[in-house]
Amino acid sequence: MTIKSVSRHLIDPGHPHMDRGSLIVSPNGQRVAYVTRPRRWFRRSPAGTKETVVVDGNVQKEYDAIENASLFFSPDSQRLAYVAKVGEKRVLVIGDEEYKPYDFVYDVEFSPNSQRFAYAALAGEKKILIIDGEERWETKHDSMSHLEDAWELDFVYSVKFSPDSRRVVYVANRDGEQFFVMDGEEYREWNDSLGLNFILRPDTRDQVFSPNGERTVAVVKDRDKERVLMNGKAHPRFSEIIRGTLVCSADGKRVAYVAVNEGSEHDGYVVVVDGKSNEETYGIRSAVVFSPDSQYVSYVAQEFGGFLGFESRRRVVIDNIRGDSYLDILTIAGRPDIFFDSEGRLHYIARTKDGIFWWRRP
Hints:
Layout (H helix, E strand, L loop, with lengths): L6 E6 L5 E8 L6 E5 L15 E4 L2 E2 L5 E2 L5 E2 L6 E7 L2 E6 L2 E2 L5 E7 L6 E7 L2 E6 L2 E3 L18 E7 L6 E7 L2 E6 L2 E3 L1 E3 L5 E4 L16 E6 L2 E6 L2 E2 L5 E2 L5 E2 L6 E6 L8 E5 L2 E2 L5 E2 L4 E2 L6 E9 L5 E8 L2 E6 L1 E2 L8 E3 L5 E7 L2 E7 L1
């Protein structure tokens, strides 16, 4: 695969109130959104003290605050979701619709088909799971019981939909013990192809579903190490599998993640693809992403150079081939800093000495 630029588009020459760390691009690569914030630490902003979201150049409703890293588009790129502050409460906003206020709103997730959504919330001492705008809870007795009738667990977090969008999986806490709840059943252990039993690491960011809908991938603890099981086959052991980095290819046949080898060069950060480690680096500064055809994998690596070697740079890596070096690859509000669109083009937002540019690569 030849790495070269197809096009670049100037997004922002320096908006006085734009929070650059909030900038996101839709999955189809056609839409852009970000937060504008007044510079209260300097002087009262001409725009006042409210914060707002700008979508495709259109200013949305003002709020007391917009939660950091809460903006994201639905998988079909049609709806934008974010968490806003109204007084001392938080509300989920999806498109033009504002949902019930709570003390805290977290773990918002769209279903893969973009038709459903779920999130967790706190209301006083209550911990609530909201599915499609309704306060729900899943138990062994009634998978969609209302919370008031089915309160069993101490806490719920890390909500996720299955690939067919029909089921919701989450991590729960009872009496200090964490475990998965899926289809109303509790999961604490996972077996490999040899029948060996491992303890699950309870975090839905460690995918328990592959994109084809089968429950085939999990991060497990193996004595003092961690490893990935895919289709019952164990990958090599590492000191740590970085949480939230495990990703499956679209065809469900490949898997990649970021791991740590303690005591090795560059602090031991390494991207593992299909059980094989790529070149070590000082750090991985993005999600690891597969192309839609499952052939390519890409991520952003950190490196150092310049005077005395203290200048931090970012470099895009595609299939272990290092591309151009940039001053920074901008964070896209908690979503992948780089991503492939439906046509297989790689997108990312990079800062150079000439400005901020949106890059597309073949």
